[in-house]
Amino acid sequence: MDDVTDSSKMSTNTRPSAANTPGAELQDVIKLLDLSSTAGPLAQLKGRKPMAEISIPGMSTIFGDASVCRRVVWCFFMVVCITIATIQVQDRVRYYLSVPVAVNVRVTMKDSLRFPAFTVCNKNPFNISEFRRIRAKQIEVSGNANETSDKIHLIVGFEGMDAKQVWDQTAHRSEYLIKECWFGRNINCNQVGKWQTVYTYMGVCYSFLLDNHSVKTTGMFNHLYLKLHDPEKLVYKDDPGWKILIHDRRDTPVIDVRTHGNTLNRGWGKDIRIYIREFKTLNTWGRPCEEDGSYSQCISECFEAVAASKMTCRLPFMNISWMNYCSTPQSYRANEKIVDELVFYGRWSSSQCHCQRRCEQDIYVPSTETYQMTADEKNLSKIRLYYQDFTFDDIEESYDYGAVSLLCDIGGSLGFLLGVSVLTLFEIVDAMARAMVRLMRQLFNKCRQRAYG
Length: 453
Fold this sequence. Notes:
Layout: H1 2-13, H2 22-36, H3 59-62, H4 68-97, E1 101-109, E2 113-114, E3 117-122, H5 128-142, H6 163-170, H7 174-177, E4 178-183, H8 189-192, E5 193-200, E6 203-210, E7 214-215, E8 224-229, E9 242-247, H9 256-259, E10 262-264, E11 268-280, H10 295-308, H11 329-343, E12 360-372, E13 380-387, E14 391-399, H12 403-418, H13 422-452
Parallel strand pairs: 11-13, 11-14
Antiparallel strand pairs: 1-14, 2-7, 3-6, 3-9, 4-8, 5-6, 8-13, 9-10, 11-12
């Protein structure tokens, strides 16, 4: 009985269980595959590629486990969208870098306005009577009267006079040139301003500068009234009269009085109503401007530098300290021709200079009315210079396309075409960093295996 019992126990223990049958093993494998599939619960435990985690539509498909056909289709649409987005972003960035500006024009009124500087030059730059007096004395001393023309260079060097001394000696005196000058009713110009001697391309001229810089009244009879007198019956040139220039007091009339001045003939009068335009421009890299300095001063210095490079001595209006004044008739005449060729005959242009305008500047726009004076006043000229009212043009530039607009346009293009946000950019950086770390680890493990293998 015991043997039978033991044999029955042995037969019971060696009987195969249901879990060890071949069919059960196959079912276990199928269940494991289902759990590990893409939709299974173990899929979250499976390592994913870093690029597949970026929250751009299609990235999980392209870098995931999708079929080749789906990946190719998504790659095509992704490339198209990236290309269009790149073109749009590039266009917006270029537009932003061009620094577009908007110009705002306002007609404004103030309680006072800055009064401009006023420069007047006799179109015959030298007093011919004084020249002939010096010339007669020169002929008497030298006994040489071969040259009888009225050329100013002939007396340069006489009695040791250089070019500047000759200009000073033969200049039109302000006390004879300016017969009357009033600023307002019964107010002499010398009470509220001063006349300043300036050396220009046209000879010795005079500029009036108001001490207070600004006026608080308007009207024809409240500002500058000037009566000019030219007693010369003989003229140095066949073009008697005056050159007048209205300009900012920070500007220089050295060249501008010739290139931008207005003509006033003897025996005529001018009523000049001025209107001011105040410009406030932005200092950008594409159109730079200067906070300080003077555009006309820069142009004048540029011209003098160009002229000095061709000259052996300087004329009195040139501010070139390292060059001496012309001291002989030959040197004066030769260098005077060089200056005339540059200015009068157009061998030089302000476009050759790299001068920047002021960021804030005043432009004075004249409106003139000319009338003929009586026969008894044929050697006189009259000028009235005034503001009609306190209105002026306030012209100011402002940025038309700023950084905020640029970011909005870029975000709109990327969001519309790619569904990208700022956080997506951080995801891309994070994914690329993780991919680089993974690649470096793989390379390190391979190198270590080869070294210890």
